[in-house]
Amino acid sequence: ESREDELRSALQQCGIDLPVAKEGSILGVRVYYDEESLILDCDRGKRLAVVRGFVELVSSGGAFSKRLGFKAAGCLAFDPVRLHFAARACADAVRALLGRSFSRRGWSDLLDISSLNDSSRAAWECLIEWMADLCNPAALPCSHKSPVRYADAPELLIRGFCDASLSGGGFVAYVNDVKLFSEAFLWRRTERRWHSNRRELVVLLRLLQNLCDFLHYRRRIVPQGNPQGVRILIYCDNAACVAWSQDSERGSLIERSKGVERRAVSRLVSGLHDELVELRHLCKPSAAKTDHPYHGVEISHLAGTVNGEADDLSRIYDRKTSVGKSLAECLSEVAGESEESARDPSRQGSGWDKLNSDKDPLAADWDPSSLEKSDEQEVQDKCQFISERLGVSAHPDSQSLHLSALSVCHGASVADVVCLLQDATSHHEHVGPSESLADRASRYCYDVDDVLHLLWYVKAIIYILKANADKSLDALDLPPFDAVAARYAAARSCQLSDPQYSSYLDGADKLPPCGPSFISSSADLASLAPDVRDLQDRPTAVIYRSGTASGQVVLRPILPRNSACSRFRSLVIRVAHRSCVHGGADGTCAQIVDYHLPAGLASSRSFVKQCIICQISRAKRAWVNPMSLGVRREDNSAPADLFRCPPYWRVGVDYFCLGMRCKILTCTCLMSGHVTMVRSDEDSKSSIKALRRIQLLRGGLREICTDTASYFTCSGFTRSVHKELGATTFPLNARSPHEGGKYEKIHHLASRKLRVLLRDCMGNIVSKSDDEIDELLLRCCHLLNSRPIGSFYFNRDGVKSSISPNVLAFGYEHYAGGQFGMDPVPCSPGKDQRAVRDAFEHYHWRRMKEKSIEACRSKCPKNAQSQQFGVGDTVLVYVPSNRKLAFPWRLAHVAAVRSNRSVDVVYPMDQRLSTENIYNLVKVSHEVSADCVSPEERDCRWDCEREDLALPSRAGMCIEVLLKVRGRREKEWYSAKVSRVWSSGHVTVEWFDGDPPER
Fold first, then answer.
1. CA-CA distance, 272 to 282, in Å (whole number)?
2. What value, to the nearest 5°, has the Cα angle with vertex 788 and ends 785 and 789?
3. From which residue to which does any coiled coil extend (predicted)?
4. What is the pLDDT of residues 802-833, one digit of tens each?
5. What is the model's pTM?
6. What are the two backbone dihedrals, phi and then psi, of residue 894, each rounded to the nearest 5 degrees?
7. Residues 489 and 573 grouped into a single domain
8. Sign of torsion over alpha carbons 766, 770, 776, 782
9. pLDDT by residue (tens digit) across 379-389?
């Protein structure tokens, strides 16, 4: 209750009106607190009632389907808390037995348990008894208690026990004295042949994997991590597994061993050590407790007599059955339906003598009268024997049993005869609802038109067969193909497979009055549609009355929504979807004009979701994490966690080329964006030296994020970083280059600054000495680290101050030179750093990331227009040079506009004319307010004293134009006079030779 009051007060302080419940429900499990414990109530009553009903149905001899059996097993196996190992093991065995023995049966088909062999039937009876024991009402209610851990709780102690037997394996884990989870599983038929050490190793590996999954989940939901660390003690009663867990030399294990399974064991040992490395990483205490003794993971040997609980889990399938075998042995002998079918005895080395076709009882033209007379007593004995194998009574007048007995007497295999009779009996007993003829035709057709033609061909074949039976083939006149009648025939075929619509067609039920549905042969349609006579001549079907936008009444046959016509219905939707060129669910429904589909929009939506072309065309690029956040997947730490760490705790390291083979190493703090640049060669040893200098200068460097370059991913670099710097490297994903966007953006900003700083040498960095380059890098870092990011924050004195990487990293601004803001102000870096980080985290960082994500949605705004250039405009042309830090822009003037995308520009220095794309141009505008020249002096009309205020124009200018005339080889000059100047730069001229004006 004290915690509840604290929660309510915290919600009131945040202005959140949220009710606090006494209990909740997670995955069907009731959760509530009882003093200092968390109670998990499984609430298994409803699910166990389903299992109990299934057990009673099977015990009474009732028939059940595969779906019902799997439903009961699913209700029994539902265990979110992972503490009912017996229920899960029993349900797994039930599903394995039914799924393998009746793999060819449908979900709704009734299952015949008597068709199983003795071992499978004994296993089924044992499983039913086991299910009955597990559904005992005395086991309800089921609740589990778990103590609540607080931040100051001692270390988390996990104890695990594992064991393997010939039948299965099992393991259990405890947190202190509370059971965490338990598991029991059965070995497959091939796994039972493994060596005992290999089986023990598999169980131990599964236990470690489950513990890794648990600690990963715990780290993700527990914000404070492991303040005191986690200690794991694992006990195994196999000495070889314990020894292998402490020996990581996989190669030596293969060399020393002479066992047949040495390579399989070696792979398991490698996986075991990978899990141990991950577990030790997850068990480490947090950074605030580095002086705490670290225990990690310990695997110890335990005597088998003491390891009782794990041994019971591994032998859970050793229950005895009615045939004297264990349940595990019976389940391993379960064979599929394809394996139980009888084979020709000759394949096994024995068989019957080759008979003639008239004496072979399995031949197609065999006649029982051709057989020699057999002994009646022998035939009766064979009938009795076959009836006992089939499990039916031997009726004396049964023709099938009598023929089967005669076949056995004359050389046929008993197994073949019994198998054929069983297949015929099961076919007649378990036949389900047949699919419609239109649905069967849809299996082999590409579109609806092929289905309609196929149905028409079937109809024609029936007419031909009927005429052949009546001896009237000469008078047969097949009607031509009628598409509308074929559509009604297909709809009638689908409706006859639906019980509701078939009752309407048979007249057993009547359609609802005043509704939109009618029978096509009904006389009530005379007042609705003008083509009622045509409808009555077609196959009778249930039709739907609809209308168009113009008010016309249309009648369309209905395709029911059932499983018997699902293929034809899906084919209609697929053809409509292709006809609308994958236009979505609404467009697909608009193209369905020949039929009425109940719930057609829902079916179209489900079809569009599964369409590969629609998925590709509508795929959108989504960011798992926003750019440049520096999030590591190992611990799922958020960017806000970095604000609680010192500067340069997590950094991004990369090389930046200044051009002309001059490389620098940049180290960027992923929390504050503070950057440090050092000259360094691009190799592993130089990188370590540069990072050591940066660590001595800035501190931190505990988590280093790098790209996947060879000098960063080699083992020597990783070991040197851990040994000399005490840091850990985290290479970024090669498929996610946006993870390094933080320091890649710094490289772009540094290039812009260095281009200005290197204007004196035109970007020729080689002309600078090493000391000059170092000073240049310090100046560039100072500019980058003092740049404003965000707008401002209020310091402790209530004064607005700009936010910069220096303030985020160290709490104060770094001033150098004759800058503004050099007033003597009291400096308290600790408080200022905390204030600015809080302001940046709660407001500015969020706004910056929102704008960054919005910018990623589109490279260009929707309403953006192309730039407009005029003749004579001053522009900057993008012309990249060979030097990386030289300016890539050149000044030019627009000479002519060629089209909406290209213009002609002339360079003032060399008077060179070239054609450029408008997206390579930036218009230069004149800032009038900053000009020291008066407007009168700036206007060219005031250059001379005259009264005419008109500007100079090309109109009236005499020019000569070089043209090529048809019929002459070379170009010639023609004189003309400019009559008009167009805004695009073109002119209209009047030729002196009297030809009409041209532009």
1. 15
2. 100
3. none
4. 788 888 888 877 777 655 444 555 556 666 66
5. 0.39
6. -75, 125
7. yes
8. positive
9. 777 777 777 77
